[in-house]
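BUG: 3D viewer hangs when loading the predicted structure for this chain

Environment: internal workstation, default settings.
Expected: structure renders.
Actual: progress bar stalls at 90%.

Input used:
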Amino acid sequence: MRPLGIYTVCNDTMAQQLIALLNSIEVNAGNDMPVYVLPYDDHITQVREVIAGRDQVTLVDEPETIAHWDAFALAAWSAHPYALTAWQAKYGWAGVYRLGMHRRFAAFDGPCERFLYLDADMLVLDTLAPVFAALDLYDFVVFDDQYKAPQHVYHLESARLDEVFGEARVHSEVFCAGFVASKRGVIGQEQQDQVVARLREGEAGVLYLGAPDQSLLNYMVMRLEAPTVNLHRLPPEGERIRTCATVPDLETRAAVLFDHGRRLPFLHYIGIPAWVFNRLCQGENILFPYRDLWMHYRYLSEPGAKPLLQGRPKPFQPSPGRPRRLGQRWRQRWRTLWEGQP
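Structure tokens produced before the viewer hung:
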């Protein structure tokens, strides 16, 4: 048993991001911090290569544990009136959308008494001691402003949502699942059974299909009424640290970031797909926010491998115009099925 540890979920598509994350952890959180990599799927050849030689990093190669949480995710989402049908219609496969991301739940029965889950598309930029210390008082510690956009956590048009949680809780307690600290055993078999039973009683319709792992984790934490603190919300409104790469005015100093003089604990490159990082590492001159900072950590231990970028810089996002509007219209066609009916 270990007192502290960090978990992430990854496969070969995210291997470049994993390198940057691990390097940032070593520099800013300590090179002795244990890190556990959960396989998103079976494509982990590059992941094995990345962690080879990093004594503090472990690949969670435990089929029974993975199978248990895969089964839990399937049981939870099978309770939804149309989720599996909608995902099959939209993507053409059977089963749970983003099933691999649900494997983050394996941390609840892992070897760490206290753990922090991080998405692979993050950089750690400061000590994590305050996060782990907050677990003295709470079962869950988060750090984000997802409460401003609860539509990415719950199906807001569900008639049951107000009955289950109430509007005030939905607009104040939801959180981003990319940065979550908790403790071993907080969600054990008893809690899992309670959650599935509640969902089967008709509450599954409140879940949001577009980010199923995030929706399900929020539901579990809120339905079980687990003591939770959002560190982002502790300071007054004007002093809250913003941690997403979408924030345009963060200040870079010596490979860390500051938000109006306050050091960021981490940066989340949310909304930037893995192919952008992969093509950048192949030498394509793709622009995205705080690119140089990510490149710094990606090539920190192998500066000679840093690619010379070719061609004019170009943003990864599509330019405004007809293709984008077509994409919006295509998404609109799915909205009724995807979001469901009240």
